[in-house]
Amino acid sequence: MEWQSLHHHCLVVDAHCDVLTALEAQNRRLAEEGKGGHVDLDRLRRGGVDLLFFAAFIAPACRERAVARAMELLDRFYTELDANREKLMLITSFNDIASARAAGKIGALLAIEGGEALGGRLEVLRMFYRLGVRSLTLTWNGRNELADGVAEEGTRGGLTRFGREVVREMNRLGMLVDVSHLSEAGFWDVLEVSHQPVIASHANSRHVCNHRRNLSDDQIRALAARGGVIGLCFCPEFVHPSEPSLDKLLDHLDHMVALGGVGCVGIGSDFDGIKNVTPGLEDVSYLPSFTRALWQRGYREKEISAILGGNFLRVLQQVLPGQEQPPIVSN
């Protein structure tokens, strides 16, 4: 099978996209083409994306009204879902993914980026679950009620008591714990507390590019050993300090594979959450170029399928409920 056919044959997962914030900022709709940004429905189709994580990003300026801000972004998602139900399907269980693909629809998994959206209450986490949220990035770069982010690493602070309760409750409900943006101490705390594999939805290798948002070799090994997956991030600053390129992004992938095996890597583009792009990956429609680059590097069909989506699917199958939902309040 040639790379073009392989890309569209595989189930492609992008585990981090900030299109909800971009739609608001750019005053556009998901079905509108050519209105800016990196993502719309037509470009998702051309990029061959089958499952996209829609992140509700809680910006620092919204910290004092974080719960309300999350609700605003979830409302924007549902407005887009209602307008595009023939093309888009909300994913709340693992079985939904196959149903969406069989129906020719793009799967949409709701995520929240920033645990301050919980307002310090487990009840809010459970209500977000009821609203369809299936992934939570515990922090952004700063500190919140759950943990310290990477910008606070000087404190050496990890998960708070509440943060530990959140991780345990997410495990029980069937939600993905996302350690992107988390301080290194918090990362190790999550691996200690969680009995499910965790993800870093959008991060690269610190060995290849020494950026605080990238993961150390020890972190990559440990996350991989626990069955987790790292979504390669297309943010140019995370790829190379001066000359980001698709080729240099694959240097990150090669290094991660050497440390943790091909099963630990996926895609977490950060499209619509980045100001600049890595050349060759200008928007989501360019994802087939990523597959071509993997092919040219010598990765085999089975390995490419795993990287494009199979690895995240494995974690989703383990973490998300099938069809039957867990009780919303624990006994």
List the helices and strands and how they pair.
Blueprint: H1 3-9, E1 12-17, H2 19-25, H3 41-47, E2 49-57, H4 66-83, E3 88-90, H5 94-102, E4 106-113, H6 122-130, E5 133-137, H7 161-173, E6 176-178, H8 184-193, E7 199-200, H9 217-225, E8 229-232, H10 236-239, H11 246-260, E9 265-267, H12 287-296, H13 301-319
Parallel strand pairs: 1-2, 2-4, 3-4, 4-5, 5-6, 7-8, 8-9
Give short descriptive properties of this protein:
single chain, 331 residues, alpha/beta, TIM Barrel, six-stranded parallel β-sheet, 9 strands
Question: What report would you give on this structure?
Answer:
By secondary structure, the chain is α/β, with parallel strands linked by helices. The chain has one domain (3-319): Metal-dependent hydrolases (TIM Barrel), CATH 3.20.20.140. Helices cover 41% and strands 13% of the residues. The protein has 13 helices and nine strands. The strands form two sheets. Strands 1, 2, 3, 4, 5 and 6 form a six-stranded parallel sheet that branches. Strands 7-8-9 form a three-stranded parallel sheet. β4, α6 and β5 form a beta-alpha-beta unit. The longest helix is centred in the C-terminal third of the chain and has 19 residues, at 301-319. It is globular and about 50 Å long. The model has no long low-confidence stretch (mean pLDDT 96).
How would you summarize what this structure contains?
The protein is of the alpha/beta class and 331 residues long. Helices cover 41% and strands 13% of the residues.
